[in-house]
Specification:
The chain is an all-alpha fold. It contains four helices and no strands. The mean pLDDT is 93.
Length: 139
């Protein structure tokens, strides 16, 4: 997979993550831990989305736009539902970041590896079990 393709895939994942964390925020109690974790994650994914768009433009590629909406695997109406969705978001992003690690070199590879570590750590904060190789073996 080319660098631009990996960047576009990661961008698509960030678009979906921003959407998903909007859903998380919509059900979270404004003062609870779900809201706090969700808002922090939302902001991280917005910044990554913006970084990826800028990088694609610097490479002469047109960044893929966000979809108008994204299908959720199940309804999200409770904090538990929101936590499950957040874990899924981070797991999916970890897969994309792992592919980005493979497609990059130097400082950009370190950045992508940092994003992978961050997704794995955030997934744990949402209650996911630890895995030996975050981002590997998921579809």
């Amino acid at each position: 997979m080319s660098l631009v393709e990996s960047l576009q895939d990661a961008l698509a994942g960030e678009h979906a993550a921003v959407y998903g964390y909007g859903v998380v925020g919509g059900v979270a109690d404004a003062t609870g831990s779900v809201a706090q974790l969700g808002l922090a994650a939302y902001e991280v994914h917005q910044r990554r989305r913006d970084r990826l768009e800028a990088r694609l433009r610097r490479l002469g590629a047109e960044p893929a736009p966000a979809e108008p909406g994204y299908a959720l695997t199940s309804p999200v109406v409770t904090d538990g539902d929101a936590r499950r969705l957040a874990r899924r978001i981070e797991d999916r992003c970890a897969v994309l970041y792992a592919a980005l690690v493979a497609a990059t070199t130097g400082p950009r590879r370190r950045e992508a590896a940092g994003w992978l570590t961050d997704a794995a750590t955030r997934s744990l904060a949402w209650g996911a079990p630890a895995t030996a190789l975050p981002g590997v073996g998921l579809s």
